[in-house]
Amino acid sequence: MGVELRDLKWALVAAQHRSLRQASAALNIRQSTLSRCLDALEHTLGATLFERTNGGTRPTAIGHEFLDAAAQVFRQTDEIAARLRSRSRGEMGRLNIGVHAAMSAGNLRATLIEHRTRLPDVDIHLVDGSGDELVAALLNSTVDVAFVSDSDHAWEGLALPVWSERVVVALPDEHNLNNHEFVTWSDISQEAIMLPQRGPGPELRRLVTANIGCSNSHWLCHDVSLDRLLTLVGAGWGILLALEGATGAILLIPAED
């Protein structure tokens, strides 16, 4: 017969009160029940844990060692229970977030900062990818939540619109659209448009096609980061489309919806 948590608890209470009568009253059990429990515990362990005298019940040297270990067991049990409660409330643990766009500015950046401030014990792990890749990651439980820009991803009704972002355009210094406060879709219909192959690139291409049709054949898709695409813009290779969240690192002109 093994040692149960109840036995450890009763032994700790007996040591705390130094009296079986007071300990049994605190536990709301009969004194005889507590005495039999301690006798059985000592028999199971093959050691005398308490000295029983007219003056009370005191732990032996071996008893002190056992009670220290028992108290540690309860501390660890309480810590595990607290961690599990925190995890169930989303207050700690690991959160895998799928993102597919630059977030040097905008709502996603602000959301991540606020989440980290309010829940510092949550370990956030970011996963990059296109909208299709991130939805697949959700289905495979690789990520817990994903932020995508394509509203077609209903994901069985579990998608939730959280905010909207404008599309912005990066232009070479001497481009004639630089003096425009807003750039319309028709303004870029004949431009060589650069897009990243990863991240929001596929969604942006579908958005452009939906607004200006398929007549624009000047797609320049590169599997590089945003800063490298901006270098190509400065070199006159074309214009670059991005989401508004990228404007924290660069100054871009917003495109008119």
Quaternary structure type: single chain
Q: Report on the biggest sheet.
A: 5 strands, mixed
The CATH class assignment of the largest domain is: Alpha Beta
Number of spatially distinct domains: 3
The gross shape turns out to be: rod-shaped
Spans of at least 5 consecutive residues whose pLDDT stays below 50 are 249-253
Give the helix/strand class.
alpha/beta
Question: What is the H/E order?
Answer: HHHEEHEHEHEEEHEHEE
Alpha-carbon Rg, integer:
33 Å
Please tell me about this protein's structure.
The protein is α/β, with parallel strands linked by helices. It folds into three domains: 5-88, Arc Repressor Mutant, subunit A (Orthogonal Bundle), CATH 1.10.10.10; 93-146, D-Maltodextrin-Binding Protein, domain 2, CATH 3.40.190.10; 167-254, 3-Layer(aba) Sandwich (D-Maltodextrin-Binding Protein, domain 2), CATH 3.40.190.10. It has helices spanning 5-17, 20-27, 31-45, 61-88, 107-118, 131-139, 201-212, 226-234, and strands at residues 50-53, 56-59, 93-99, 122-128, 145-146, 167-170, 193-196, 219-222, 239-243, 253-254. The strands form three sheets. A five-stranded mixed beta sheet has the order 8-7-9-6-10, with helices on both faces. Strands 4-3-5 form a three-stranded parallel beta sheet, with helices on one face. Strands 1-2 form a two-stranded antiparallel sheet. α7 (201-212) links the parallel β7 and β8 (219-222). α1 (5-17) crosses α4 (61-88) and α2 packs across α3 (31-45). It is rod-shaped, with a radius of gyration of 33 Å. It starts with a helix and ends with a strand.
